[in-house]
Hints:
Blueprint: H1 4-19, H2 27-31, E1 54-56, E2 59-67, H3 69-73, E3 94-98, E4 117-127, E5 136-142, E6 145-146, E7 148-153, E8 156-162, E9 168-171, E10 184-193, E11 206-207, E12 223-224, E13 228-229, E14 233-239, E15 242-252, E16 257-266, E17 274-280, E18 286-293, E19 299-305, E20 324-328
Amino acid sequence: VEDDAALFARLFDGWNATRAQAPMLTEWGESLRPEDVASTKHHPRPQLQRPGKWVNLNGFWDYRIEDYFASASGSNNNAAAPAPPTAGDSGYEGKILVPFAIESALSGVGKAVGVDKQLVYRRFVDIPASEGKEGERYLLHFGAVDWKTWVYVNGRLAGSHEGGYDAFDLDITDHLRLRPGGSSPQELCVVVWDPTEDGQQPHGKQWQDKASDRLIAPAGMWYTSVTGIWQTVWLETVPASVHIEALELRPDLASETLVANVRTRVSRAGVAPFVRLTALDEDGAVVGSGSGWSSPEGDAIVLRFAEAHGAPKRWSPDSPFLYDLKVSV
């Protein structure tokens, strides 16, 4: 039986061999180690960090490339979802380092996918029983996946998304199998299809040169295509009763105030949470506040700076100061 150290060493050697084949590697790519992408040192969403627990799910995932389900069935690609990957399936080609696109050398794979294929990812996540508390919801976040994505949790479709450049999240709580008295391994599978220039979706300068067997084939203004996960994947817990879903901040320089639209998600219809805003300076001192009722649509709440603080500091290239903002419900 291979222990964890031996397994990681084997994965690292395979990944490093693919990295070494990159035609152009930056100094950051040269110094990168697989464990760097799974670090919790930097939050993946710095503008909306919660005090609760979160887990970085980057790292080595199983992967395979298979026939695109809609091509195989002859159906329209918007008509259905791929069949759930079989639980415990061992038919994976190898390991891919998330969040690097499969075409890239840093993914450890360096393969093209194509319009007639789909990319399947899988990994297991252990959730300790102590974290499976009532009143908590589990949100699975994807920074970006190119292009159409289906997410399965323990063999059940949790949701789908279209778009290669925007973040999305899914509430996967009802798909988890939380077992009291011990950790509960959860199987996450992600299926991705990306038609690149053969589709109607925005794809920038990505191009698949079908006449070439070389991965880095496009020339001129064209770039190698990107398929699959290419931004951080992470899991967090939020209170089931109410939590903040999004913020929109608009400084009003004329009135020296901050207008915040706070969008909340509540478990019961008709509930309007009371929201408090607190501005903090570089020393952590409170210098401004505001409060008001919120809603799923995001009602405006005004933060005013304390008279003792004086006029708020304005950001500039010469003085790039930013206030910390605490938002609570």
